[in-house]
Amino acid sequence: MENQVLNIENFSFYYGDSQALKDINLSINKNRVTAIMGPSGCGKTTLIRAINRMHELTENTRTEGSIKLYDENIYELDPIIVRRRIGMVFQKPNPFPTMNIYDNVIAGYNLNGIKLKKSEKDIIVEESLRKSALWGEVKDNLYKKGTFLSGGQQQRLCIARALAMKPEILLLDEPTSALDPKATAHIEELISELKNYVTMLIVTHNMGQAARISNDAVFLYLGELIEHGKTKKLFTTPQDKRTEEYLTGKFG
Amino acid sequence: MRKLFSGDKIYRGILYASAFFLIVLLFGFFITFIFESSESLSKFGFGFITGTQWDPIDSQFGALPFLIGTLITSFLALIISFPLSLMIAVFLSEYFHKGFFHNIIKTAVELLAGIPSIVFGFWGLFVLVPVIRDFQTAIGIEAYGVGIFSSAIVLSIMIIPYTASISREVITMVPSDVKEAAYSLGATKYEVIRRIILPYSGSGIFAGALLALGRALGETMAVTMIIGNSNIMPTSIFSPGNTMASVIANEFTEATDSTYLSALIEIGLLLFIVTAFINLIGKYIIKKTARFS
Amino acid sequence: MNNEINNNIEVISNQNFDVDYFKEKKINFRIFKDKFFKYSTIAGALFISLLLAYILFYIARQGISSINWNFLTELPKPPGEIGGGVANAIVGTLIMILLASIIAIPVSIAIGVYLSEDKQTKLSYWVRTGLEILQGMPSISIGIVVYVWVVLQMGSFSGLSGGIALAIMMLPVIAKSTEETLKMVPYSLKEASMALGVPYYKTILKVVLPSGLSGILTGILIAVARIAGETAPLLFTSFGNPFMSADVMKPMNSLPLVIFNYASSPYKEWHNLAWGASFLLVLIILILNITAKIISRKWKIKF
Ligand SMILES: Nc1ncnc2c1ncn2[C@@H]1O[C@H](COP(=O)(O)OP(=O)(O)OP(=O)(O)O)[C@@H](O)[C@H]1O
Ligand SMILES: [Mg+2]
User: Facing residues of A24 across strands?
Assistant: First the structure.
């Protein structure tokens, strides 16, 4: 039980009057990769954006229930603290176009007004780029604009940027859907390695990807959590008929 | 078939003619300015810009007081209006990007752009100038009321719409995924605006300020009514003065001898060149910014 | 590749670089700054709107009492006498706007059509640059040039020269909006007409231009709104005239000129007339802008 990092309890989500998530209950264990699957529009993005309160940037949204990071309800903390403890990687790589690679990695500290010595920054930048397996490729070009990198490199830069803040959880929303197969393979490998440091929730449409990189899997359907379990078990012996239909390609 | 073909020819002909007409028109402007100011250009040379004496009776024409007057009023106006314009742009694009308050402020800015210069001048003369005069009395300086400072304030109100609308446009062009990335790292809205949005849209905002400056430099009527029309070198920002545009407006119909008229037209030439330059740079930056995103 | 990652990870785990969070700015201070910025922004925007409301209110209060039947139908009276109106200025403004529109509309629409046809030629580049220069040009410069070109040649100030000066100011506005509108007319519409064997110029005149009509009309209204209050280019072209005159070859009065001349006079009655003229002018411009908005919203080209 003390292994649980995140506890989502009786959680519902509304865009205005329309309910996008219905009474979700889910707990996430430390240092595991959880894949969130489901057909398009089932609420995957909504769920993970609610976990670091990014949904509050969208007008007219409302939540019920609670999400606990260890023992603290994230809705009782300040959103800027929540977001620092729960990092996020987006579908489309989005490095800051006005900053070079170095500044991109350290951006979280600069944005949060954390003053660091140059030597401290150097360590964080190198460490984060190594963790995201980008160090070797960019260590000679740290002061070039991040937007000059390839798509896959940009996405790893975004992962480095999130890791630099030492988040307890990392949320990834279809992080490879804008990338080519080679870059995708690279990111997948990276995720498998990263679970030693950080707990991850990854939204993916690609069942092969979920099978390759995740320990646990969640199946969402029409805003409801249908099934949650070890990835192997969910893939081989799904308990619910809808999960089975999804896995065999009946919809989505 | 023949007839139709010639119809297309006439059509192209008309289009080309109008396009050339515009080029010729502008070229004509330039030639006219040079030609009509040639007397003053050859008589005073560079001394026209550095001379501080403007004395038509003595045929002394030094335009420096007006150049200084123009620069001070315009830059002062820009300094006053810039923060307010930026606030309006941020308000409209980041805090209230739609809805009731958005519409109110947006309409207000549009209305502001629509009020004629002469009406601003009239209002300034009857409402603002007395206030400034009281203020000058209160701080114990010569209480003209009219002058460079009063003009700059009225100008600053008038140019707000230019900077505000262009800034709003470029701020709206900042991709939302870049902003989201910053929020996801724990930044507050202020920090996102300050460290992501403003750097990203900086050159566009600069262009907006430049275009507003161009407006301020050439603005005539409001300034003419408020600046006090004094041809001596301003000694402080509260002095009465004249700008390039206001001295033309005031003295053009009185200029009886050819040197006098030619000197006024040379001021017009300077104004024409400076504003054209500023506008082209501003537009160029905006175009580049638009392509960049 | 796997090896590379594993190697990296070893390096990392040996390093310890925990950040000293005491150096961090207090979170409450950051939140305070955020709020402070938000409310200053709102205050700034509110301040401008209130200022505008005050200016409009002031003009309306001063002006509305001057506006009556006499104001609209009579000529100005000599100083000291009560009453009088600005009928000559209203007529003059209307005549010069009409004149300017007649001159500017065909040429500027043709320029706009040209720009939408030749998008990337050298000539169109220079035409665009020219329009930009013209748009940013101080209106007083236009007055000077028209003075030299028209007033000096005719030997007198005239309504015609005023109309020409205003026409030059309208030109870039209408040309730009025509170009923008025509750009949005889809190519398929042109093709459909051409496929029926309609010659190109007729396609443009009968199909493309009409479908962009609302945009062009909006541009014209905005251009008229822009020139209605212009004073500087009229100072040495139409000059002003205390009498009623509809003769475009003679000096002509206009509302902005009335404001300028009467505002700087020492007479209270004349000030009142100037306030009345200001109010009327602002009202006209407001109505033009609102109409332009309604047209562009209602008739927005939908394809
Ligand atoms: N901003 C919004 N306003 C209103 N409804 C929204 C909004 N965003 C999403 N929705 C609705 O909420 C539901 C869940 O959307 P969500 O984006 O979470 O789905 P998803 O599972 O991430 O889909 P996809 O696989 O296509 O990314 C959908 O029905 C969608 O239409
Ligand atoms: Mg999604």
Answer: A11
Nearest to residue B71, comparing CAs of B179, B1, B155?
B155
Residue A63 burial (C-beta neighbours within 10 Å; 0-12, 13-18, 19+): middle
Which residues of chain B have a CB within 8 Å of the CB of A54? 180, 183-184
Q: DSSP letter at B242?
A: -
Q: Could you give the domains of chain A?
A: 4-96+169-247 (3.40.50.300)
Ligand 1 is surrounded, with C-beta below 6 A, by A 15, 20, 38, 40-46, 58
Q: Tell which C residues from 258 to 297 touch A, by Cβ distance under 8 Å.
A: none
CATH 1.10.3720.10 fits C69-298, yes or no: yes
C195-236 confidence digits (pLDDT tens): 898 888 889 988 889 888 999 999 999 999 999 999 999 999
The neighbouring-strand residues paired with A62 are A14
Domains of chain B: 38-292 (1.10.3720.10)
Cβ–Cβ gap B272/C138 under 8 Å: yes
Sequence-distant contacts of B95-98: CB under 8 A, at least 24 apart: B95/C38, B95/C41, B95/C42, B97/B172
Over residues B59-77, the pLDDT tens digits come to 999 999 999 999 999 999 9
Query: Which pTM does this prediction carry?
Result: 0.92
Contact of A165 with chain B, judged by CB distance below 8 Å, is answered with: yes
Which CA distances in Å does A10 have to A23, A66, A72, C8, C203?
4, 7, 16, 41, 64
Whole-number pLDDT of residue C10: 38
Å from CA of A222 to ligand 1 middle = 10
Domain boundaries, chain C: 18-64, 69-298
Mutation for B interface: C54, C103, C141, C294, most B CBs within 10 A: C141
| Other beta carbons within 10 Å of A81 | 16
